[in-house]
Structures are given as C-alpha cells and as structure tokens.
Design a protein that fits this description.
InterPro entries: ClpP/crotonase-like_dom_sf (IPR029045), Enoyl-CoA_hyd/isom_CS (IPR018376), Enoyl-CoA_hydra/iso (IPR001753), Enoyl-CoA_hydra_C (IPR014748)
Protein name: Enoyl-CoA hydratase
Order of helices and strands: EEHEEHHEEHEEHHEHEHHHH
Mean pLDDT: 98
Bound molecules: octanoyl-coenzyme A
CATH superfamily of the largest domain: 2-enoyl-CoA Hydratase, Chain A, domain 1
Number of strands: 10
Organism: Corallococcus macrosporus DSM 14697
Largest sheet: 6 strands, mixed
CATH topology of the largest domain: 2-enoyl-CoA Hydratase, Chain A, domain 1
GO molecular function, one term: hydro-lyase activity
Keywords: Lyase
Length: about 260
C-alpha cells in the first residue's frame, strides 16, 4: 500500500518503518498517525522484527504536529489523542520485537513513539525530550506513563516539568536508550540485533514479550503466574520440540513459529 508520510521497507524478515515527512521533521499529524495505524494493522505476516526510525537526516519525530494541534477544539484534541494512543498501543501489542532507531530529534510524540517500542537505540545526534508543558499541554500519547515506567517517577517528572532536551548519552544514563551509535552505524546495528533475534523461536519471543508487558502492571505473584502458564503453553509447540531436539542433536534449530 502506498503511503504519503511513512515508508515501510522489508528485507527478509526485518521491516523498517520510516516516519517520512522530513519537511516537518516527521511531525505526527492526523494523516501520519492514520497511516501508521494502517501499516501496523497490515504488517506482512512474514515480518519478524520491526525497526522504527525517522526519514531524512535530522529527526526521528519532532513531536505531534503543532500546526495542526494549535487549532483543535477540546473534542478534536480528545480524538487526536485517542488516535495517537491507538497507534502506540498497536505498536506495543505487536507480537514481534520492535526497535526504535532514534536518529535525530525525538521530542514529545516522538519520544512517546520510541517509548512504545520494545527498546531504543540512538545515534549520537539524537535529542530526546518531552517539551509539551512549554506548549501549555502535557504528553498525550502515553509519555507520562511509559516514560515513568522506564526512568521512574522523579526522573520522569524532572524531564516533563523542565521540558529539557537531553542528548543520547544522557538518555542512556537514564535507561531510556540502551546504546548509542554513530549516526551512520545506527540502522546497521539495529539490523544486526534483529538478525540475532531471528535465530530464536518467534513463538517463544512473542510469549516472552506478552508476559513481560502484561506482568509489568501486576504484582510479582500474579506476574509470575503469567510466566508459569506461558512457559507450560509452549510445551508441545513445534518450536519447543525443534529447539530442544536441535540442542540434543548438536545442530542449529530451524524454527517455524508454530
Ligand atoms: N509540529 C509541526 N511542525 C514542526 C514540528 C512539530 N512538532 N517540529 C518541527 N516542525 C517544522 C517547523 O515548523 C519547520 O517548518 P517550516 O520549515 O515550514 O518553518 C520545520 O519543521 C523545520 O523545523 P525548524 O525550522 O524548527 O528546525 P530547527 O532545526 O530550527 O529546530 C526543533 C528543530 C528543535 C526540533 C524544532 O523544530 C522544535 O522545537 N520543534 C517542536 C518540538 C516540540 O515541541 N515537540 C513537541 C510537540 S507537542 C507533542 O508532541 C504532544 C504529543 C501528544 C499530543 C496529544 C494531543 C491530544
């Protein structure tokens, strides 16, 4: 399907989703969010890792589109916020690993998009932040909640109340970003990590992701119960049989995700 503001490129089982509206630093307007929603819903079934990054040289995503938001009524803002939340939730719910490759500005909705991925790698040029209070609003695509779960309440409050723009090294120190790479090496590194994951059982990865996500909002006892059940459920799957058989036969496993 042809999109205007995003681009999906697939190489084997790895897809790279570019937010590609560089003239507005990839700002998320309604059309871009709708395209993202549609692309995430119709991701080809053979995609097993998704990398999300920004088109152009300068930005991952410089936020929600301020020009569009400036004119919204309360009701329209609720709708716009709901659309953004749906996109972030759809990304988070994908049963495959998602990696944000933050290649430049990731501000407001841009940081929120990155935080909805499983983890974030950044280029040395990246600048992250949640500057919404400087516009008289608050993060509206899940930032108050996802950032807090990653960096803790005090750091999240510090970042959100100051609106500070932080560099990749600082974001790594806070645990928002896992690793920092020279700009030209960022996507290659993401792909190398994706290749490693492709060697493992997609079914087991999907289960691990599901349990990590669902368990994060529960107490330890309930969360461990989710793990116990998911672990048991994997027995009898073709991937479990193949993974263990391959180990015993001292060969590389060939997983089918079944
Ligand atoms: N929205 C719309 N247009 C943008 C945005 C944006 N977020 N960011 C940049 N642009 C546009 C600029 O207006 C400019 O357009 P033009 O060339 O037509 O003037 C073009 O992109 C290039 O930008 P700059 O000239 O400003 O480039 P600089 O290198 O000078 O600065 C910055 C880069 C620092 C990234 C700067 O553009 C900036 O500060 N952008 C805004 C960052 C920001 O505040 N982001 C947060 C937005 S609020 C948000 O994301 C809320 C999310 C939840 C919404 C929930 C709604 C219910």
């Amino acid at each position: 399907m042809a999109y205007e503001n995003i681009r999906l490129e697939q190489e084997g089982a790895i897809a790279t989703l570019f937010i590609d509206r560089p003239k507005a630093l990839n700002a998320l307007n309604t059309k871009t969010l709708q395209e993202l929603e549609s692309a995430l819903k119709s991701l080809p079934a053979d995609v097993r890792v998704l990398i999300v990054t920004g088109g152009g040289e300068k930005a991952f995503v410089a936020g929600a589109d301020i020009a569009e938001m400036a004119a919204l009524t309360d009701a329209q803002a609720q709708e716009f916020g709901a659309l953004g939340h749906r996109v972030m939730a759809a990304l988070e719910a994908l049963p495959i690993p998602t990696i944000a490759a933050v290649n430049g500005f990731a501000l407001g909705g841009g940081s929120e998009l990155a935080l909805a991925c499983d983890f974030i790698y950044a280029s040395e040029k990246a600048k992250l932040g949640l500057p919404e209070v400087g516009l008289g609003v608050i993060p509206g695509f899940g930032g108050t909640q996802r950032l807090t779960r990653v960096v803790g309440r005090a750091r999240a409050k510090e970042l959100i109340f100051t609106g500070d723009r932080i560099d990749a090294a600082k974001a790594k120190e806070l645990g928002m970003v896992l690793e920092v790479f020279p700009a030209e090496g960022l996507l290659a590194h993401c792909r190398a990590v994706a290749e490693k994951m492709l060697k493992n059982s997609p079914l087991a990865i999907a289960k691990a992701k599901q349990v990590i996500e669902a368990g994060a909002d529960q107490d330890l006892r309930a969360a461990n119960e989710l793990e116990r059940k998911a672990f048991g459920d994997l027995f009898g799957s073709a991937d479990q049989r193949e993974g263990m058989k391959a180990f015993l036969e001292k060969r590389t496993a060939t997983f089918t995700g079944k």
